[in-house]
Amino acid sequence: MLFLGTGAAELYPNPYCNCEFCESLRQSGEAPRKRSSLLLDAHTLVDLGPDALAAAQMYNARLYDVDHLFLTHSHEDHLCITNLEVLTMTPQRNEKPLHVYLSEPAHVFLTRYMQALRGVYAQGETGLETLIRRGVIELHSFPSYVPVRVGGMEVFAIESNHTAHGPNEHALNYVFSREGEKLLYAADTGLYSEENLRALAGMGIQTLVMEGTFGDVPVNPETATHLNAEHFVLQLQRLLDCGALAQDARVYMTHINQVQHLCHAAYQAYMDAHSPIPVVVASDGLRAR
């Protein structure tokens, strides 16, 4: 898998921001973070934010072979419609559809979004509608808490507490299973509910990619819809305790913002000191198992 981006919506550092942390990142030469996106394998992409295509160029990742795009939710740092509409200028993709999976509320939002913009376009439809009409893109509402076979994988989605643009839309966290290997992509989310822990219990997931948005910023565990460093460790322990996560699992942190104050090395040091199992604070361009 290839991390095309490991940042949150604001970017890292935020180009508009002159706070002490962003300035220190610029001066340190630490690699910036683009909006989070994960190329799971040659055929599977998770989220398509504003930076994903540029990242694919940077890391020499060919997206031509991607057949399945799983969207966690409709926020713009996870779904960039303009990046999908590049397919209107890519005739080579016309021979095979790109299947896009999203929750039913996100699907409703996207449909309303396209309908609202029809009058703005001279041709009377958005670029995305053109792609759907031509069969280049196929949208699929993805159910929660029901395993679904997709492209040789079994995919299982849970609803996090992170809300987005659709009516009662909650971000989906996906478990991808293939040939006995399971990976959980957990962004965006706060602490999991008991329902979610029960749904994941006993899965023995071998790879976890989970957000660590807020770093050293204190957050309310009852209301936060992102994880900080403390809650990342707590969530990790809860997943281990219920058997959702294998004891020897590989764990990667993504979706980190600049509102907190932990640079990459400091965040890694915190995980080394506090996590019950090893955690890799991922960076853009990281290739991992």
Give a short summary of the structure:
The protein has 289 residues and is α/β, with parallel strands linked by helices. It has 8 helices and 13 strands.
Please describe the structure with a list of short key phrases separated by commas or semicolons.
289 residues, six-stranded mixed sheet, 13 strands, alpha/beta, globular, single chain, 8 helices, seven-stranded mixed sheet
**DSSP helical segment count:** 8
Percentage of helical residues? 25-40%
How large is the share of residues in beta strands?
A: 25-35%
Total beta-strand segments: 13
* SSE order, one letter for each helix or strand: EHEEHEHEHHEEEEEHEHEHE
Instruction: Give the overall shape, derived from the CA principal axes.
Output: globular
Average pLDDT confidence is 96
Note the main sheet. Answer: 7 strands, mixed
**If strands are numbered along the chain, what order do they take across the biggest sheet?**
7-8-9-10-11-12-13
Quaternary structure classification: single chain
The SS-based structural class is alpha/beta
Could you list the spans in which at least 5 consecutive residues all have pLDDT below 50? Answer: none
What integer value in Å does the Rg equal? Answer: 19 Å
Would you mind describing this structure in some detail?
The chain is an alpha/beta fold and 289 residues long. The chain has eight helices and 13 strands. The strands form two sheets. Strands 7-8-9-10-11-12-13 form a seven-stranded mixed β-sheet. A six-stranded mixed β-sheet has the order 1-2-3-4-5-6. Helix 7 links the parallel strand 11 and strand 12. It is globular and about 55 Å long. The N and C termini lie close together (6 Å). The mean pLDDT is 96.
